[in-house]
Amino acid sequence: MSLPEDVKSCCAAVYSSDAVALLLGDSYHPGGAALTRRLAGLVKLRPGHRVADIASGPGATAWLLATEYDVAVDGVDFAAPAVQRAERMSKRLGLSDRVRFHVGDAERIPLPDNGFDAVLTECAFCTFTDKATAAAEVARILRPGGRIGLADVTVGDSGLPDELSTLAAWVACVADARSVGQYRAILDGAGLATIHAESHDSALVRMLDQVEARVHLMRMTQKERIVAAGINVDDVLNFMDIVRRAISDGLLGYALIVAEKG
Ligand SMILES: C[S@@+](CC[C@H](N)C(=O)[O-])C[C@H]1O[C@@H](n2cnc3c(N)ncnc32)[C@H](O)[C@@H]1O
């Protein structure tokens, strides 16, 4: 397996690329805004709360939380280009007084101790190379009684087929995903006690359907953009077939987990 810093850089580069923007659109996690709202409800966001979105990606979750829940949001992501784009968009949306984005590593979060009522991390914890340290960092920035809402890819107990253990699969949030029990144990080890978990495997299937539809449409209407973004359509479709099979075999799923700092 590659070195942790290589995995992080590769993941950050891929997620700030045009190719991913073309394939995924605005939402980089299964379930889109609906599952973000579900998570916001489960962590009990209230007006005036301070929230951290760890691995904030393009920024859509931070803007949704600020506008719909009247909270202040600090987004942190390893990918500098994505953070800069999100900062510019915050200004354009007139939200820069309440939504800020920072370049940073989930394993060294550039935010103060005990400063947050809630932390969200969507479809990203599975890519963190040192999950125990990332969980400890979340515990450090949460106030006592604050909650983390984790949305992530999950694996079954028998693990994954070899073709889903590559660096590409890691970046696609699959290779280093864990079972719900393992995520809970990692959070628990950092003093974050799980109070709720629920499965949303169908959200993963819907996301694959959406990406596949985008790929087919782009292949017909935007061939040059696909080429310019360096997307190999056959590779993408082949990878998605493998993921689809893993979901239907019960090897892959998606879950929300909510834990509280004691
Ligand atoms: C699948 S995207 C999810 C983005 C966003 N949470 C969303 O749901 O739209 C994964 C994100 O994790 C970020 N990431 C990966 N490793 C990270 C790390 N160690 N620290 C901070 N961000 C990281 C990537 O740059 C990418 O933006």
Distinctive features:
alpha/beta; Rossmann fold; seven-stranded mixed sheet; 7 strands; 47% helix; globular; binds S-adenosylmethionine
Q: Short summary of the structure?
A:
With 262 residues, the protein is of the alpha/beta class. It contains eleven helices and seven strands.
Q: Describe it for me?
A:
The chain has about 260 residues and is of the alpha/beta class. It has a seven-stranded mixed β-sheet with strand order 3-2-1-4-5-7-6. The protein has a single domain (about 5-255), classed as Rossmann fold (3-Layer(aba) Sandwich), CATH 3.40.50. The radius of gyration is 18 Å and the shape is globular. It starts with a helix and ends with a strand. Helices cover about 45% and strands about 20% of the residues. α3 (about 30-40) packs across α4 and α9 (about 200-220) packs antiparallel against α11. The chain has helices at about 5-15, 20-25, 30-40, 60-70, 80-90, 130-140, 165-170, 180-190, 200-220, 225-230, 235-250, and strands at about 50-55, 70-75, 100-105, 115-120, 140-155, 190-200, 250-260. It contains eleven helices and seven strands. Bound molecules: S-adenosylmethionine. S-adenosylmethionine binds near residues 11, 27 and 29.
